[in-house]
Structure formats: structure tokens, C-alpha cells
């Protein structure tokens, strides 16, 4: 039973038995993410003071300018996860290929792979808008002791053993699930401890916030255009409120607390949308469903999609169940 103000460490120990593979490794894995998040949080909060703003000059596999904090966050999570002898492989938005991590004895006997977006929404850094880290955890499916392969990463989202995000906002929070509901922990920066502040988080079944970049309206599929017009119509409980931060973790987090839908659809410019299936949509979809919400590509459940490549994109509709279902209705009926 979750107790308000319980520390994250106590919570993990108390709920150890919930982890299907309760050898304690998954707990240690969540703990290492907690530590890495503290280090990144410290840097993100100081970003305005230290000369760490602005592009690092490189571009990542997405061809996007890498902000120095992107590079820093990527290194912190990789190093922290590597040093804990639990993970046999890592995939990151900032890395072209997956990284193999050998155990101390140079064997591949660690059981888990982690996929992550180390700093999502990083274009907001220079304008002091909240950003986030998104992580997804699977058990490897190839035999222990053999080299990790791409198959260990290309698993459907329904195989995730844990997923979560860190939002570096007005306060820093870790929100995660191991398949037994969603819990949110807020960092007390004075003592560096996370406390259970949002036990058993649930998406309201309905809501009145829609989050989409309407600047792309002319490029949207007809079903999305029809749904946006529906949200704006003076009728019943509408018009809804439009709220779009440009940071998936922040828009998702607000909508989970208040009720709402986030949409990043395919467009004529990006036929598969912008968001990445493996380390953005799958983890957020697991959290959404564990919180009673929904996540689809407009037609099918995100967690059922069989991935084909590490950095593949998918259209993303997620949030309050009834709002996602209504948007899917417009997608299906679009002329
Ligand atoms: P646009 C940030 O780059 C991100 O991946 C999400 O966090 C965010 O919701 C979206 O892209 C913003 O994209 O095209 O609306 O600026």
C-alpha cells in the first residue's frame, strides 16, 4: 500500500515483491535511474547559470542540433546504468546504434535492456521551459550469456517490465510503473530525496484539454482536422482548452492530472509523425494504460505495434480514454 511521503527508496523495497522478476535487479535499476535523474536535474536547474546552453555543435541520429544538456544527460544515464551491472544493453535517441554492456566478468549475463530519450523537449532548454527524460525497460529475449542483439530492443511495448519519465519542471518528479499502477515521486532538492507525492495516478476518463501543434493544421490528416474542429465547437462541454508546451513529458503529465489528450499525428511532411515508438511512445503508452488512459496511433494500440527499426516514428494519440476514443472515431470516419 502506498503511503504519502514515503521515500522512493522505501517504496521500492516495500513493493519489491510486485516485480515479476523479484531478484532485486529491477529495483536496483529503478534506483540507478533515480540517481542519474538527480545529477541531470542539478545540471538542468543550473543551465541558465553555467555556460552549458546552446548547441554542442554536433547533430544526433535525428539530424537535430544536440543541445549540450542532451549530450550530458545521455552520458549520465549511460554511465550510471553501466556501473550497476544490471543492464546488458542501452538504446538512446542520442545514439545511432544500441550499446552493449558487459558484466564485470566480461560476460553478457545482465538481464535487462533500457531504451531512453535522455532529454526530451530539449529545444525548450534555452527558454527555461520544462523538459523530461523518458525510459523503457525490457527483459532481454535472447539467451543470457550470448551477445545482445537488435531483437532484444525491437520488442512490442506490451513486453515492457517498467516505464517512466522524469519531468524537470517547477519541481522535479519521477513517475513510473512496473505494471501495478502509476506512482509519482517529487524530489526534495534540499536533501536529495524523492517522496511519494502522487500515489496511484489515474487519467480522468474524460477531459477538456487538447494538446496538438495546430501550426501544422494544414498538413494534418482529415480525421485530426475534424477532431480539432470538434474540440473547438461551442456545444455540450466544449469548446475545450488548447494547451501545448512542446514538451511531451510536460503535456502528458498535465493531462494525466487534469484530463486531456495529446496528439502528434502523421503529416504530409512527416508521414509517420515525429515521435519515436521505442523510447517515447511505448513508455508513455504503458503509463497511460496503467493510469486508465489510452494510447494509439489513431487506429491501433501503441503497445501492440511490432517494432521494425530502433528509431522508427509513429503517430501518437494518448490521454483520457474517452477523448482518445473520440479522436479515433474521427480518424476512422474521415472522408
Ligand atoms: P513540435 C520535443 O522535440 C518533442 O519530441 C516532444 O517532446 C514534443 O511534444 C514535440 O516534439 C514538439 O514538436 O513539432 O510541435 O515542435
SSE blueprint:
Elements: H1 8-14, H2 25-46, E1 55-59, E2 65-67, H3 68-82, E3 87-92, E4 99-100, E5 112-120, E6 131-139, E7 162-168, E8 172-177, E9 182-188, E10 193-198, E11 209-211, H4 222-232, E12 241-242, H5 248-258, E13 261-264, H6 277-290, E14 294-296, E15 316-319, H7 321-333
Parallel strand pairs: 3-5, 11-12, 11-13
Antiparallel strand pairs: 1-2, 3-4, 5-6, 6-7, 7-8, 8-9, 9-10, 13-15, 14-15
The protein binds 6-O-phosphono-alpha-D-fructofuranose.
Domain Fructose-1-6-bisphosphatase class 1 C-terminal: 204-332
Binding site for substrate: 120-123, 213, 244, 274
Keywords: Carbohydrate metabolism, Cytoplasm, Hydrolase, Magnesium, Metal-binding
Categorize the overall geometry: globular
**Sheet with the most strands, sense and barrel status:** 8 strands, mixed
Kindly estimate the percentage of residues that lie in beta strands according to DSSP. 15-25%
Helix proportion range: 25-40%
Tell me the total number of β-strands: 15
Notable traits:
single chain, 335 residues, alpha+beta, 8-stranded mixed β-sheet, 5-stranded mixed β-sheet, 7 helices, 15 strands, 28% helix, binds 6-O-phosphono-alpha-D-fructofuranose
